[in-house]
Amino acid sequence: MDKPIKAKFDYDFQNDVLYMMQEKREYYSSIQNKDFIFDLDKNDNINGIEILNVSRVIGTSKFFLNNIKSGTVQIETIKMDKGTLIKLHIYLECAVRNSNKIQSLNTENISEDISVSEPEYLKPAYLNLATA
């Protein structure tokens, strides 16, 4: 996996959507699988992620997500016979009652696999999140 890429994030409390994207990116297209939307560049590199209903999907409080200070997102991709299996490893540092708390979120804890059939193969990525 390449070195971390500077990224920014934004959490929409009202709609419960977490946006994570590279600071400098070229958007080409998006693919969606259930509550996950992956933004791609022309070379099928993932350069942004939106997670819909994120508090339900990852099993944490909207108030926790509303106080994100920093974090990282590792995107693992595994080529399968019918598309690509995507594993997300999300580490968030949030302010909770005037102290910082780290919560590790991992899609392996989610019962539904995230997989896409198009494009045929996506490349892994590592986003280093900072306040937008």
Q: Would you write up a description of this structure?
A:
The longest helix is centred in the middle third of the chain and has 5 residues. Strands 1, 2, 3, 4, 5, 6, 7, 8, 9 and 10 form a 10-stranded mixed sheet that branches. This protein is mainly beta and 132 residues long. The relative contact order is 0.26. The chain is globular. The two termini are 24 Å apart. The chain has one domain. It is built from 2 helices and 10 strands; from the N terminus they run E-E-E-E-E-H-H-E-E-E-E-E.
Mean pLDDT across the residues is: 75
Helix content: under 10%
Which runs of at least 5 residues are low in confidence (pLDDT < 50)?
108-113
Secondary-structure-based class equals mainly beta
Task: Give the ordered list of helices and strands.
Answer: EEEEEHHEEEEE
Q: What is the 3D shape? A: globular
Please report the distance between the alpha carbons of the first and last residues: 24 Å
Computed Rg: 14 Å
The largest β sheet comes out as: 10 strands, mixed
| Proportion of residues in extended strands | over 45%
- Tell me the number of strands: 10
Tally of helical segments: 2
* Total individual domains: 1
